[in-house]
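Kindly inspect this chain:
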Amino acid sequence: MKAAIHPTYEEIRVMCACGNSFTTRSTHKGDLHVEICSACHPFFTGKQKLVDTAGRVDRFNKRYGKKTAPEGTASAQ
């Protein structure tokens, strides 16, 4: 391998807009400033909500959901 062709891999500090910061290693020079991180992202915090646009989930469940047997067919015999 050729010497001195790879960038330096140094420890940097990542700072989020929420105030969270952590250290990692990267070839990026200087600190990173990000808008969202795993501490404030709704998916990782468990605050993510499913958005039901125009009843799509209900319509799907009505079409393809588990069918219940009509009363009095198999159990009455």
Observations:
- The first strand starts at residue 10 and ends at 16.
- The two ends are 80 Å apart (CA to CA).
- The chain has two helices and three strands.
